[in-house]
Amino acid sequence: MVDVGEKTPTRRRAVAAAQVRVSAELIGKIASHTVAKGNLLDVARLAGIQAAKRTDELIPLCHSLPVEHADVQAWIEGQLIQLRAEVSTFSKTGVEMEALTAVAVAALTVIDMGKAVDRSMVIESVRLLEKSGGRRGDYLAPELTSASAGARQPAADSADHEKVPPITAAVLTVSDRCSRGQAEDRSGPALTQLLTARLGAKLVASECVPDDEQTIRARLTTWAREAPQPDLIVTTGGTGLGPRDVTPEATAAVLDRRHPGLLELVRKKCGPKSDRVFLSRGEAGTIAQSLVINVPGSLRGATESLEALVDVLPHAVAMLHGGGH
Predict the structure, then answer these.
(1) Which sign, positive or negative, has the C-alpha torsion 215, 221, 226, 227?
(2) Beta bridge partners of 287
(3) Is 211 considered catalytic here?
(4) What are phi and psi of 31, to 5 degrees?
(5) Could you tell me the CA-to-CA distances from 114 to 36, 43, 121, 124, 227 in Å, in that order?
(6) Is the pLDDT score of 9 beyond 80?
(7) pLDDT tens digits, 26-64
(8) CA torsion sign, 117 to 118 to 119 to 121?
(9) Sorting pLDDT into bands at 50, 70 and 90, what band is 10?
(10) What's the chain's average pLDDT?
(11) Cβ atoms within 10 A of the Cβ of 25, count?
(12) pLDDT tens profile 240-290
């Protein structure tokens, strides 16, 4: 099994589909509820849901996951039985296999329920349609059109699919050595990649500055109050106990409102993996219409801290711009 012990739990969701081609005779019996074994579509749905919950027992190297939601839909289109599964969890790894297993077992159940009528049934496809969550970002099947995506799907939960404009972001690396060209800035580019992949954010500014309080204050104020005025400003570096670690003091001096709860969330999620998260003195809050967050300077500390916040940041930005709860 892949070791996911160091990964941060995030909200995960996956949707898969399958289709089974059957005879016109079997379609007629399904529609008239005269299949000998019972309601074929309902039994297939229940079999798929049960399979999603037991995927780790069926697929040898799958992790055991706390499946929070599993739904399987089944319907007739012509001579096809269409199957669609949606599975979600809050965990360290994704639920693609749970969704795929759900539709695969549902398809096999269609064959089992209908084989007395039609021995020529064919499972024509089992495929992943979409996934969200995790470091590699979201996925949408290339062939998936908006029309097919909307077919037979339940209404989306507004809390899970909140409609907000694309987030603009800026990344400020605070490091004496990086600003002098004596060390490579690794955390800044990694945060940029994470913001782009996980939030679909557009980077509008990035810079590396020394551990100087006045310089940090000036850059944060200029970005937030003049240009480019990003929705989100993430700083990396200078949050520890070193004599030159002044990023929290510089940030606190220019914040309009503090928001310590965001970094409490980081400590809650990252604390079980490393006690060092409690050594970071980062600040979070707002300057005008920009949300500012300090994360540590190490590559791991920076990325894991931001990973801990990605699920709440779209809603935080929406609220900052006048959106409701």
Answers:
(1) positive
(2) 290
(3) no
(4) -65, -35
(5) 8, 11, 8, 16, 65
(6) no
(7) 999 999 999 999 999 999 999 999 999 999 999 999 888
(8) negative
(9) confident
(10) 88
(11) 11
(12) 999 999 999 999 999 999 999 999 999 988 888 788 999 999 999 999 999
Which secondary structure element, helix H or strand E, spans residue 10, and what is its range? Answer: strand 10-21
Q: Residue 276 in 3-state DSSP?
A: helix
User: Which residue in 152, 71, 129, 82 sits closest to 110, CA to CA?
Assistant: 82
Q: From CA 320, how far away is CA 284, in angstroms rounded? A: 13
Angle, CA of 243, 245 and 246, to the nearest 5°: 110
Average of pLDDT values for 208-236? 95
| DSSP for residue 166 | P
Which residues touch 39 (CB under 8 Å, ≥6 apart)? 33
Helix (H) or strand (E) holding 257: strand 257-258
Rounded (to 5) percent helix, strand, coil in the chain: 35, 25, 40
Q: Which of 56, 112, 176, 212 is an active site residue?
A: 112
Q: Which CATH architecture has domain 168-320?
A: 3-Layer(aba) Sandwich (3.40)
Domain 10-150 homologous superfamily, CATH: Molybdopterin cofactor biosynthesis C (MoaC) domain (3.30.70.640)
Q: What per-residue confidence (pLDDT) applies to 324?
A: 62
Cα 167 to Cα 310: distance, rounded to the nearest angstrom: 12
Contact 99, 87 (CB under 8 A): yes
- Domain assignments of the chain as residue spans, ordered by start: 10-150, 168-320
